[in-house]
Design brief:
The structure holds two protein chains of two kinds. Chain A is mainly alpha-helical. Chain A has eight helices and two strands. Helix content of chain A is 70%, strand content 4%. By secondary structure, chain B is α+β, with helices and mostly antiparallel strands. Classes of the chains: A mainly alpha, B alpha+beta. Chains A and B meet through helix 1, helix 2, strand 1, strand 2 and helix 4 of A and helix 1, strand 1, helix 5 and strand 8 of B.
């Protein structure tokens, strides 16, 4: 494991931003379901590192991911109970996929109604391809909790998508 | 324990939307030195007074002009729906600009200015939410020139969505190096259950 020394210049942070900004934003977007708040969460983490630096951590990328996650849950705590409005889509179709806008909207609607912890598991499992064990390590939860959250989330999304009725 | 659900294949056709290109590495605010207090002298007060009188005149004139150019309001409420051409514009002029329609999830023009919709207080209190679908026309300068509600949720939410969308700005679209007007459907979501 690499050891990160105190960052004197901003070269390492700029490189880390180029490498991580997009995936961190996607992670934050799924947690917060709001574009501007997700941007703020990512930029807040980098802005904070720019001013105070970072030392004595094993992996900068992992540190950034944990910081963004903490920032997102703090934002969710601040906003608790408050409805939000966003004029940007939550999901986008992969380049090769041919999907209908209605399907995307149905899934987005389903995702928005999930608790953030379940959205997080869906994101890490489906969109990032992590195993349950990796998700459990990242989120400090037991593997059984992660698996349950995933199962509940998939059930709700399937209903939202309308696939539940078709498959039974 | 099986880890893979077949529904993942449906989900796997999507990914979370990417960040806007405007999201750049944050710039730290410049450090400020100790601020020096400047005491105004009598001469500068006189100059400030003259400037204030001039500014008041200019603002007064601007307010008069602005009142004359107030948009027409029908029935006391702004009209939401297909926008009509601005006064003075004729259909002949706009008809010369070809219009192109984008359907489905095809690649969309880059959004340069995004304005988040304001959640109407009454709808927020009643926890009314949903996704408003709007058909917009992007003019050759990138501004949203027409807005039409395709699928509404609630009159207040529809109006809030349309108000925000009218302020959006995109990269103008060209086909064969010719500027075109672009028609596409956008969605604005109001989440009441956060």
């Amino acid at each position: 494991m690499e050891r990160i020394e105190p960052i004197a210049g901003r070269t390492e942070l700029h490189a880390a931003y180029a490498r991580n900004a997009a995936p961190l934003f996607r992670y934050a977007l799924i947690l917060l379901t709001h574009h501007h708040e997700a941007e703020d969460a990512v930029q807040q983490v980098f802005a904070s590192l720019t001013t105070r630096g970072v030392a004595g951590i094993d992996s900068l990328d992992r540190y950034l991911r944990t910081s963004v996650r903490n920032e997102c849950y703090s934002a969710l705590q601040r906003r608790k109970g408050q409805p939000i409005a966003d004029g940007m889509p939550l999901l986008e179709a992969l380049p090769a996929a041919e999907v209908r806008t209605d399907d995307r909207l149905a899934l987005e609607q389903g995702l928005r109604t999930l608790p953030p912890e379940q959205r997080e598991v869906i994101h890490l499992k489906v969109f990032e391809g992590c195993s349950f064990q990796e998700i459990a390590d990242q989120t400090n939860e037991s593997i059984n909790t992660v698996a349950s959250r995933y199962r509940y989330a998939i059930q709700k999304l399937r209903v939202a998508f309308g696939a539940g009725a078709e498959r039974t | 324990m099986t880890e893979r659900d077949p529904f993942e294949d449906v989900l796997g056709q999507f990914r979370p939307a990417g960040p806007r290109p405007e999201m750049q590495f944050p710039v730290a605010p410049p450090e400020r030195g100790p601020q020096r207090q400047i005491r105004p002298r009598w001469g500068s007060w006189k100059a400030a007074g003259v400037l204030a009188v001039v500014a008041a005149g200019v603002v007064g004139a601007w307010i008069q002009v602005d009142r004359r150019s107030e948009p027409q309001v029908i029935g006391g409420k702004p009209v939401v729906g297909r926008a009509t051409p601005a006064a003075g514009a004729t259909r002949d002029v706009s008809a010369q600009v070809p219009r192109v329609t984008i359907t489905g999830d095809a690649k969309r023009p880059l959004k340069l200015k995004d304005v988040a919709p304001a959640y109407p207080e009454e709808a927020r209190a009643q926890k009314i939410g949903g996704t408003v679908l709007l058909e917009i026309v992007i003019a050759t300068d990138g501004a949203v020139s027409e807005v039409d509600i395709v699928k509404g949720v609630h009159p207040d939410l529809d109006e809030a969505a349309a108000t925000a969308v009218r302020k959006w700005k995109y990269v103008p679209t060209k086909v064969d190096d010719e500027p075109v007007e672009l028609i596409m459907v956008v969605d604005v979501t109001f989440s009441a259950r956060e």
